[in-house]
């Protein structure tokens, strides 16, 4: 099911290039989330392969002990991408203005989107492009938590629960013929009630939705 125009809306409709103009050399999730993501990459990615880190920044969370033939980066801030030591090459592009990726067909073994998918206004078009550039049996790993730039997240994501966001990602994959049934990985550590009463917050919840480009 495709998103409605209302579901694609952002609270801040201003220019995305202006919003991302200044670099943010911070991580937007906690260390526990990052460790889980890096371990997931270690388990699912293969060394000596070609990786696209879509909607990336100054860090890719790839395992230090894994080498890849090529890591292509994409993002919205030149300074952030230039500082990322894992990227062999990168390009700048506003995917909400132009979803067409400047990449060849069947060229990547894996595509990664870490804690950024909530900002895509036309995810169906982007996931179609991901399918196009992936090799047969290529992997997609989309990870997220409950943090976001609230004003830049689309309504369908912003107004949903985490369970609804998982379903939303499943629908993104289902919108493109040729992806396998999505696999969901989640780790949510509930905070004891007495700590909630004290106003303490727990660890960032970890979610990943994974699919493959099916071979024809």
UniProtKB/TrEMBL annotation:
Residues 99-142 form the Methyltransferase type domain. One of its GO terms (molecular function) is S-adenosylmethionine-dependent methyltransferase activity. It comes from the Bacteria. It holds the Pfam family Methyltransf_11. This is Methyltransferase type 11 domain-containing protein. It comes from Crocosphaera chwakensis CCY0110. The lineage of its organism: Bacteria, Bacillati, Cyanobacteriota, Cyanophyceae, Oscillatoriophycideae.
């Amino acid at each position: 099911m495709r998103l409605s125009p209302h579901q694609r809306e952002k609270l801040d409709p201003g220019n995305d290039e202006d919003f991302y103009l200044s670099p943010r050399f911070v991580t937007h999730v906690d260390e526990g989330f990052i460790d889980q993501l890096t371990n997931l990459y270690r388990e699912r990615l293969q060394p000596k392969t070609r990786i696209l880190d879509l909607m990336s920044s100054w860090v890719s969370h790839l395992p230090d002990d894994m080498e890849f033939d090529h890591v292509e980066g994409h993002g919205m801030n030149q300074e952030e991408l230039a500082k990322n030591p894992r990227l062999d090459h990168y390009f700048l592009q506003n995917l909400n203005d132009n979803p067409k990726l400047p990449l060849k067909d069947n060229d990547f073994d894996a595509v990664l989107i870490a804690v950024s998918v909530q900002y895509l206004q036309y995810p169906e078009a982007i996931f179609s492009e991901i399918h196009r550039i992936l090799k047969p049996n290529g992997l997609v790993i989309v990870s997220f938590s409950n943090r976001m730039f609230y004003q830049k997240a689309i309504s369908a994501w912003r107004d949903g629960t985490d369970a609804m966001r998982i379903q939303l990602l499943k629908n993104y994959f289902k919108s493109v013929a040729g992806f396998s049934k999505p696999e969901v990985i989640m780790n949510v550590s509930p905070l004891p009630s007495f700590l909630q009463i004290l106003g303490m917050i727990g660890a960032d919840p970890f979610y990943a939705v994974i699919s493959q480009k099916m071979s024809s």
